[in-house]
Every structure is written in structure tokens, then in C-alpha cells.
Design brief:
- It contains 10 helices and 2 strands; from the N terminus they run αααααββααααα.
- It is an all-alpha fold.
- The protein has one domain (7-260): MetI-like (MetI-like fold).
- Strands 1-2 form a two-stranded antiparallel ribbon.
- A hairpin with a 3-residue loop joins strand 1 and strand 2 (124-125).
- Helix 4 packs across helix 6 and helix 9 runs antiparallel to helix 10.
- The termini are far apart.
Length: 261
């Protein structure tokens, strides 16, 4: 196996161009579905973390109905199970390697669930693609949750008070006032997460997803060439990520320009 670059090796990998094209399509689809799943999951987690659900609130009151200033009962009364579960999820997912999460989802969860073995577009194995999307989506949701939470918290609390004075419910306030403004503020961060996922999706080839790195592995096995396929993969990732990053930066400047007027 060659360990240095040889220009004569590039024609040898040219017959496998179709594999790289398919891998690029898989990578883009993987990233799109991951961000969509991560966004929905992040919204749920952010609302859970910002909730004020305290089922044991009554334990914080003394016999006269006054709020206890301290003690075990006062601490228990402030316990929010929704916020606790969401925080635990975010911290665990952000503190463990992505590859470990992918292996747990694929070998642990989806060995118990039998997925259909059809192929999308004639070459994408659904029973490999779907676990990869789920694993990456769960990981992305943990990171997007903090972005979503900060975006919601950035909205002035006075707008919530104004919504209440107009008779809007909490759901209506969230849907029509808070979320539209929060999404505008965090849209660049969500778009940047898409670029990050394009690069991180390379790890899914370890469970058989036919992405760009899977094409590299196939070429290496057939030709015993490794450096040149890696350079091709690098060029493809660059062509996907660099223009996307510049496009995001452009729209971010346009949006910030509108806020200054």
C-alpha cells in the first residue's frame, strides 16, 4: 500500500468516481435529516429545561402556608423532573464520544428493532442509514438545545408580560412571539451546525453507511491506494463545507444589517 502521493495513482481511482458521487449524496442527506431531527429534539429539550414544572412544590410550604427558606423539604420542592431529565440528557450526550453513541444506537438499540432492508435511491441501505441519522440527530439535539435555550432566553421578558396582558396563553406566546424572534437569532448557529454535521457524518462509515469515507475505504480495499482517495474525500468535504460556510456568513451579515436599521 502506497504511503505517499503519486500522481499516477489518480487515474487508478477514476473508475470509482461513482462511489464518491453516491457518498456525497449520502453525506448531504445524512446531514439534512440529522439537523431536522436535532432541531425538533433540541426544541423539546430547551422547553423542558426552561419549564417551571415542580410537582412537589407544596413541600416548600410550612403549616402557615409560607415559603420555607431552607431545609431538605425546600430543596425537594424546587425539584423539576423535566429540567433534570433534559439537563442529564444534554450533559451525557455532550460528554461522550460520537462514535460510542453510534455504536450503542446501532449495536444496542437497533439489534432489538428489526428495520426493513430496502435501499433508498437504489444504493442507500436503510437499515444502516437510519441508525446513523438517529445517532447523529440525538447528538446534534444535545448541542442545538443550548443554542435554542440561549435564543429563547435572549428575548426580552417584557414581551411575555405584554402577551399576558393581551390575553395570550403561554403556548400562543411561545408560538407567535418568542419562537419567531428566537429562531431569527439562532438561525446562523443552526446553519453552522449543518456544516459541522457534514464533517462529523464521516464517522458513520464505521456502521456501514455508504458516505464519502465509505467510498475511500472501498477504493483502498480494491486498489491498495489510500492517500489519493483521502485527498479526493478532502476536496469533496471542502467543496461542501466552504461554500456553505460563506453562504451562511453572507446571510448572517444581511440579517444583522437589518437589525441595525
Amino acid at each position: 500500500m502506497d504511503s505517499f502521493i503519486q500522481l499516477s495513482n489518480f487515474p487508478k481511482i477514476a473508475p470509482y468516481a461513482k462511489l464518491f458521487e453516491q457518498g456525497m449524496l449520502v453525506t448531504v442527506l445524512l446531514s439534512l435529516f440529522t439537523v431536522m431531527i436535532g432541531f425538533v429534539l433540541a426544541l423539546v429539550l430547551a422547553l423542558m429545561r426552561l419549564s417551571n414544572f415542580r410537582p412537589l412544590r407544596f413541600l416548600g410550604l410550612d403549616r402557615d402556608g409560607h415559603q420555607r427558606e431552607g431545609g431538605v423539604l425546600a430543596v425537594i420542592s424546587r425539584f423539576n423532573p423535566l429540567s433534570f431529565l433534559a439537563t442529564a440528557y444534554v450533559e451525557i450526550l455532550r460528554s461522550t464520544p460520537v462514535i460510542v453513541q453510534i455504536f450503542i444506537i446501532y449495536y444496542g438499540v437497533f439489534t432489538l428493532v428489526e428495520l426493513p432492508s430496502f435501499q433508498l435511491f437504489g444504493f442507500i441501505k436503510f437499515d444502516r442509514f437510519f441508525p446513523g441519522v438517529v445517532a447523529l440527530g440525538m447528538n446534534s439535539g444535545a448541542y442545538l438545545c443550548e443554542i435554542m435555550r440561549s435564543g429563547i432566553q435572549s428575548i426580552d421578558g417584557g414581551q411575555t408580560e405584554a402577551a399576558r396582558s393581551l390575553g395570550l396563553s403561554q403556548v400562543q406566546n411561545l408560538r407567535y412571539i418568542i419562537l419567531p424572534q428566537a429562531l431569527k437569532n439562532i438561525l446562523p448557529a443552526i446553519a453552522n451546525e449543518f456544516v459541522v454535521i457534514i464533517k462529523e457524518s464521516a464517522i458513520t462509515y464505521t456502521i456501514g453507511v455508504q458516505d464519502i469515507m465509505s467510498a475511500v475505504n472501498a477504493v483502498k480495499g480494491a486498489t491498495f491506494i489510500i492517500i489519493e482517495p483521502l485527498l479526493v474525500a478532502t476536496a469533496i468535504y471542502f467543496c461542501l463545507c466552504f461554500p456553505t460556510s460563506k453562504l451562511i456568513a453572507y446571510f448572517e451579515r444581511r440579517m444583522s444589517r437589518g437589525d441595525k436599521r
